[in-house]
Design goal:
With 433 residues, this protein is an alpha+beta fold. The chain is built from 21 helices and ten strands.
């Protein structure tokens, strides 16, 4: 087992996660036989710092008890993650600390059960020693991900997809034997719970550097069972979505904020990821719906992707955009709504020039645009009182006609709206209803 002393500041001059000074608790509060493992060690060796700490410790015993006592002492949150495997978490304001019972008879056995060598490096915080039996440090210097063993990939097939996500995050490549093993075991990913696959996909979709690795995962057959409609051409459109996002953000700074906005605070998806998802699923909205349901995407994400695909059916060329009347645009924007940024990226990635989409972007980023963001000049109650009308679907139709007339520049005030509605009724021969 290789071991070497390691300074608290890593390769750079700033404190790393290996320094207990950065932790939300004192080193003295940990038992003597405890080791920091996984991503925190890997990132420290790469001099990758993060304001939010994600610490993983392994202990030969009392893992849950240690987490519980630490949470109690510092009034932190406590979560029992896995009672059977004895894994628990202490949740602090600036990070989390997971404590797990080591797998196997000793630390060496535990490290040899992990996915990739760069994640199989341990650090003894009491002595400052690195424990690296699989030469993960050397792989860090090479900049590649190398599997610990083929059996470990088969034991948890999610590791097949995780390889692409970690390569994207770290800017690494896949070691050749590791990639061959991934291709061999690719069909096994179909056995993994959809929620776990979804989580890894979310990272790949949201990172611009993740798109080439998403392409690689598809080419290697890893995602075939989850995206049966995906094609290389469609996946390459996902790459073009990133380019469209960059270019449109440069030309329309106010549009950039919309692109990066999450659908909901509880979701990792934004409009860029929605556009990429639309490139991976079937062009048929009903089939796409079922594919995304199987992957356990949220209703908001599924509805957004389906909206993009449906909008594309009616507006799929520069000529189609140019032929839209104001009335057509009014109803089209009404159907697309807040999903428009995803549609714009999807459309440009699918071959429409950004200049052809520009008039629609101009309308969308203008909150006062009467076509993309219609505001009522009058409400139904006011209309009923002014024209002595009864309740009914005709009120909704009149209000819509008023909004279209305003979008066309025919009216601009509430009084003009009422007079317009009166003329509409007179034209229909219905002065009272």
């Amino acid at each position: 087992m290789n071991s070497a002393p390691y300074g608290a500041n890593g390769r750079g001059n700033r404190p790393s996660a290996l320094s207990s000074e950065t932790w939300p608790f004192r080193l003295e509060d940990l038992p003597e036989r405890v080791y920091l493992v996984g991503g925190a060690v890997r990132d420290a060796l790469l001099d990758r710092a993060s304001e939010y700490l994600d610490l993983d410790f392994v202990l030969p015993n009392n893992a849950v008890e240690t987490a519980r006592e630490l949470a109690k002492r510092y009034r932190a949150g406590f979560v029992l993650l896995d009672a059977e495997r004895q894994i628990a978490r202490a949740v602090f304001a600036n990070g989390t600390a997971d404590f797990a019972l080591q797998e196997g008879d000793n630390l060496d056995a535990d490290l040899r059960r992990r996915d990739f060598t760069v994640n199989a490096i341990a650090y003894n915080p009491h002595t400052g020693q690195l424990i690296d039996p699989l030469q993960g440090s050397e792989d860090l210097q090479r900049g590649w991900l190398r599997m610990v063993s083929p059996d470990n990939l088969q034991d948890d097939p999610l590791r097949l997809l995780r390889a692409y996500r970690q390569a994207a995050q770290l800017g690494f490549s896949l070691e050749s034997e590791t990639q061959r093993a991934i291709r061999q075991f690719a069909p096994r990913l179909s056995r993994v719970a959809a929620e776990r696959v979804n989580s890894e996909l979310s990272y790949l979709l949201k990172m611009p550097q993740g798109t080439p690795w998403l392409l690689a995962a598809l080419a290697d057959g890893v995602l075939g069972s989850w995206f049966p409609s995906a094609t290389v051409e469609g996946a390459m459109r996902g790459r073009d979505v990133d380019r469209a996002a960059d270019r449109s953000s440069e030309l329309y700074p106010e549009f950039a904020a919309e692109l990066s906005r999450d659908l909901r605070s509880t979701l990792r998806a934004n409009w860029v990821t929605v556009a990429k998802l639309a490139c991976l699923v079937s062009d048929d909205a009903d089939i796409a719906y079922r594919e995304l349901m199987r992957l356990k995407y949220s209703r908001a994400e599924i509805r957004s992707v389906v909206t993009v695909l449906q909008a594309w059916q009616s507006v799929n060329s520069a000529e189609a955009i140019a032929q839209l009347s104001v009335s057509d645009l009014f109803f089209w924007f009404k159907s697309v709504g807040a999903v428009f940024p995803a549609f714009a990226l999807f459309a440009v990635a699918s071959g429409i020039e950004l200049e052809a989409i520009a008039p629609l972007i101009d309308r969308f980023v203008n909150p006062d645009d009467p076509v993309a963001h219609p505001q009522p000049l009058v409400d139904g109650k006011t209309l009923m009182m002014a024209l002595n009308l009864s309740k009914g679907p005709h009120i909704g139709r009149l209000l819509t006609a008023i909004q279209i007339a305003r979008a066309c520049g025919q009216i601009a005030t509430a009084q003009e709206a009422i007079e317009f509605a009166r003329s509409e009724l007179d034209h229909l021969g219905q002065s009272t209803l």
